[in-house]
């Protein structure tokens, strides 16, 4: 009888382990051929691994493998000796003794992935996404995105939050409106989730503090650089709050923790992309109406919509707080009630406004959150006032019928946050496989 156990000693060394080897040390590793530079007597073969690139040196008299049989994008197993070379990317290179080809591409690559920057359009990169992401800089975008999710998960877990996983098919949208993808669920009408809102609120009554990282769906016919029809939302909901400021403090803590994490574990990717991380030790906050007034007065822009922020206004408000307070972030608070969902808690001092907020990052909204109505009678009154049907919300409303603590939460658009952090122009650049008005593949 044979049994399977956990992995033992690594059969091959990681790139950092290879680079720690002494001069002349015999090593073995595997990877993909990123590029081949034939200099005549010497051929430089660049090996791509998950940790980065390794320069290898092929000399015909030292390696019995015929170099003419090697192609870019082949995957290989190699043996050789590590040697110091100041001109090599890491100050060391691998001199090949032996090579075994594990797989060979059926045809040449349509993209020059070994270039510092892919010289092609965004649409071409998205059409050939699995290949484009083999470029080191393109790939670095999603390593940094990994760090953002990791920071969210680690910070909230340390703050006593429980990670949950909610369904993405439901009977009713959490935010109402017409921007829902409708489908037939065994001959019953159903929708794809606009957010995990109902479920994370229900789970506050169970775990007090919950979070989720998952896709959400918006059937909006936008074709802009900032919208997607499927994106990843970083959501949390926390109970027993004193005010919605507790939520803003928690998000500030997450951002601060995550920037430190990126500095510590993702500096290589930050350097590759030339990213300077913002300071988030403290973030200014300003009322919605005051933010509109400040931007209007300083930049001589007439206020056209008193109930919402237009994209140009968001940009001007972000510019204002950068110029006046050197802050890349700003919390905009007390949004008008008519522009917030029914579950948003109204300001008891002025019911035209809500105890809610958005977080702008360099002039773009990346977070929406606020305090929720936790009283059953108040919730039913709000639904009646808005003439909303309760069909499909029975389980959600039952949770409040049997008691819920004061609570609130927020949702962060992961792709937008990544886009602003990296200074990219289009949210599709920071989306692994975008789903927009015209794209369903790859």
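-> sequence recovered:
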């Amino acid at each position: 009888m044979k049994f399977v156990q956990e992995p033992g000693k690594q059969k091959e060394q990681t790139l950092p382990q290879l680079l720690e080897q002494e001069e002349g040390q015999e090593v073995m590793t595997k990877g993909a051929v990123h590029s081949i530079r034939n200099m005549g007597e010497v051929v430089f073969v660049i090996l791509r691994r998950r940790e980065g690139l390794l320069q290898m040196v092929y000399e015909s008299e030292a390696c019995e493998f015929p170099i003419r049989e090697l192609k870019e994008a082949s995957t290989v197993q190699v043996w050789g000796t590590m040697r110091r070379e100041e001109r090599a990317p890491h100050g060391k290179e691998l001199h090949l003794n032996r090579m075994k080809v594990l797989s060979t591409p059926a045809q040449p690559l349509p993209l020059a992935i070994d270039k510092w920057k892919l010289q092609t359009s965004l649409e071409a990169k998205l059409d050939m996404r699995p290949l484009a992401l083999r470029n080191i800089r393109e790939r670095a975008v999603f390593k940094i995105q990994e760090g953002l999710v990791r920071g969210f998960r680690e910070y909230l877990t340390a703050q006593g939050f429980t990670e949950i996983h909610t369904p993405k098919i439901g009977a009713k949208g959490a935010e109402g409106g017409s921007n829902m993808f409708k489908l037939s669920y065994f001959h019953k009408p159903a929708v794809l989730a606009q957010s995990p809102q109902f479920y994370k609120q229900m789970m506050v009554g169970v775990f007090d503090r919950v979070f989720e990282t998952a896709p959400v769906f918006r059937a909006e016919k936008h074709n802009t650089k900032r919208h997607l029809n499927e994106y990843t939302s970083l959501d949390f909901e926390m109970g027993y709050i004193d005010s919605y400021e507790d939520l803003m403090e928690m998000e500030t803590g997450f951002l601060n923790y995550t920037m430190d994490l990126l500095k510590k574990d993702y500096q290589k990717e930050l350097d590759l992309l030339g990213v300077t991380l913002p300071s988030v030790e403290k973030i200014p906050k300003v009322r919605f109406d005051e933010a509109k007034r400040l931007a209007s007065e300083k930049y001589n822009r007439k206020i056209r919509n008193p109930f919402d922020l237009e994209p140009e206004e968001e940009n001007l408000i972000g510019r204002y707080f950068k110029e006046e307070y050197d802050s890349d972030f700003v919390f905009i608070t007390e949004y008008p009630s008519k522009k917030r969902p029914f579950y948003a808690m109204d300001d008891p001092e002025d019911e035209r406004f809500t105890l809610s907020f958005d977080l702008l990052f360099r002039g773009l909204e990346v977070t929406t959150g606020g305090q929720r109505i936790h009283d059953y009678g108040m919730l039913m009154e709000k639904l009646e006032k808005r003439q909303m049907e309760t069909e499909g919300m029975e389980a959600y409303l039952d949770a409040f019928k049997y008691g819920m603590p004061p609570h609130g939460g927020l949702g962060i658009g992961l792709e937008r946050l990544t886009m602003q952090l990296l200074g990219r122009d289009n949210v599709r650049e920071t989306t692994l496989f975008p789903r927009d008005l015209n794209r369903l593949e790859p």
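The longest strand covers residues 26-38.
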